[in-house]
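FORM 12-B: Structure-to-Sequence Request
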């Protein structure tokens, strides 16, 4: 299966900075053997749509989507709006939103469904905190998080991307070892297999301090089908090195 390397710029962007970063990415990306995407803050979608026009190597992604279709939801951005700007992927349930915006498993599942209905691939993030890992709850937590999505979207589950992101590894420089990550990915794969006969084509990304130095080893694991990259997606050379490691 084709791997996916997706950058999550988080709340790091500016008109000038985006232009320089995208120019660097387009200059070096060539024709990658994997899928590549950048998930950018909503105000920059129009800029990115223009910067990425006329090429196939890098797709556009969003970092969130509203759980509602339209109407009186001040500040929300709907899936249909994202679609108008050429968005192919939308991150849902990132741990930073689960933590700071109190997003529940159910809300995340509704967001995933909204994205799918608009023809956008949700990148559904799951992952345990350090406390949960130390209590031996990792498998239980990630299965619970994914289960909400499986139950809501039904047979469309084969259209999603999953990202396993241990919360203790995000932005900390601490990475799960390839074996630790592979274990959780295999748990998630088994859960998907129980839900659909197409589980083998669902990409399960790893995220959490993935960088140019550790990417190849992580991406060599049988159930790691790509990466969701935060910090290392903000420099063209670092991100491109991860893209190269995925080929
Ligand atoms: C992320 O935010 O999805 C992420 C993986 O961040 P970082 O790579 O910086 O740990």
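FORM 12-B RESPONSE
SEQUENCE OUT:
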């Amino acid at each position: 299966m084709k791997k996916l390397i997706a950058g999550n710029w988080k709340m790091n962007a500016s008109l000038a900075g985006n232009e320089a970063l995208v120019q660097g990415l387009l200059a070096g990306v060539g024709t990658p053997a994997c899928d590549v995407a950048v998930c950018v803050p909503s105000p920059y979608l129009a800029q990115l749509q223009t910067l990425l026009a006329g090429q196939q190597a890098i797709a556009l992604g969003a970092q969130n989507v509203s759980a509602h279709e339209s109407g009186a939801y001040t500040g929300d951005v709907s899936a249909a709006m994202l679609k108008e700007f050429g968005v192919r992927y939308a991150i849902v349930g990132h741990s930073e939103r689960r933590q700071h915006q109190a997003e529940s498993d159910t809300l995340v599942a509704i967001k995933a469904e909204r994205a799918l209905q608009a023809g956008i691939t949700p990148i559904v993030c799951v992952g345990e905190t350090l406390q949960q890992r130390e209590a031996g709850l990792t498998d239980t937590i990630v299965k619970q998080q994914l289960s909400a999505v499986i139950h809501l979207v039904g047979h469309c589950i084969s259209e999603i991307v999953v990202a396993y992101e241990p919360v203790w590894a995000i932005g900390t420089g601490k990475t799960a070892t390839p074996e630790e990550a592979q274990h959780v990915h295999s748990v998630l794969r088994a859960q998907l297999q129980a839900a659909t006969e197409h589980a083998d084509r669902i990409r399960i990304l790893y995220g959490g301090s993935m960088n140019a130095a550790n990417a190849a080893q992580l991406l060599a694991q049988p159930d790691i089908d790509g990466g969701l990259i935060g910090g290392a997606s903000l420099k063209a050379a670092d991100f491109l090195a991860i893209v190269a490691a995925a080929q």
